[in-house]
Amino acid sequence: MNTWHIDTAHSNISFKIKHLTVSTVKGSFKTFTGTATTLDDSFVDATLDTEIQVASITTNNDQRDGHLLSPDFFDVEKFPTAHFVSTSFKNVESNTFAIAGNLTIKGITKEYTLTAEFNGLTNSMDGKKIASFSAETILNRADFGLSWNAPLEAGGLILGETVTLELDIEFILAA
C-alpha cells in the first residue's frame, strides 16, 4: 500500500460561478489537506480523502468573502470544513479517471463524480515521487443549502445555480 499526501504548495482547489447572468466570478480555497492510498503507481482503485477549511475561501473581494462565510452560504461557524471521500477511482480511458465519492458541505452529503486527467509521475528536486491530477465537476449549490440569491430587475438571478469545481493536485509519495 502506498500513501500519497497532497502537496498544498503545488496544488489548487478553485471554483467559478455565473454572476449577474453574464460574467463569471472565480475563487479558491487556500487551506486543504488530503491523502490518496494506492496499490501501485497506476492509481487504479485508489482511495481519496480530502478536507477543505472553508474559512480559507477567497474571491479577492473581502465583502463577498465575508458573505460567503455567513449563514447565507457556508455558515462557517457551524460547518468549518468541506470533505470529500472517494467511493470509486476508475481508469476510464488512457489518462482519464472517474473519481466518484461523497462530498459533504454544510453537513449535507451528496455523491458526485470528478472527471480527472492523470498528468503523470515524476520525481521532485529532492528525489521524492510525485503524481499529478487535474479534475473537474459541476455542483448544484442548492444541493448543499447554498441557495441564497436575489432577482435582477432585467430578469434572472444574481448567481447561477451551478458551480464548476476545478482541482489541480500534486501528490507526494510518503516515505
Features:
11 strands; 175 residues; elongated; mainly beta; eight-stranded antiparallel β-barrel; 5% helix
N-to-C span:
12 Å
Q: State mean pLDDT (0 to 100 scale).
A: 93
- Rg, rounded, reads 17 Å
Arrangement of strands in the largest sheet? 1-4-5-7-8-9-10-11
Strand content: over 45%
Unreliable sequence segments? none
The percent range for helix content is under 10%
What is the chains' assembly state? single chain
Morphology call: elongated
SSE map:
Blueprint: E1 2-6, E2 12-19, E3 23-29, E4 32-38, E5 47-53, E6 57-58, H1 62-69, E7 81-93, E8 96-105, E9 108-123, E10 129-140, E11 159-173
Antiparallel strand pairs: 1-4, 1-11, 2-3, 2-11, 3-6, 4-5, 5-7, 7-8, 8-9, 9-10, 10-11
Description of the structure:
Helices cover 5% and strands 58% of the residues. The protein has 175 residues and is mainly beta. An eight-stranded antiparallel β-barrel has the order 1-4-5-7-8-9-10-11. The longest helix is centred in the middle third of the chain and has 8 residues, at 62-69.
How would you briefly describe this protein structure?
This protein is mainly β and 175 residues long.
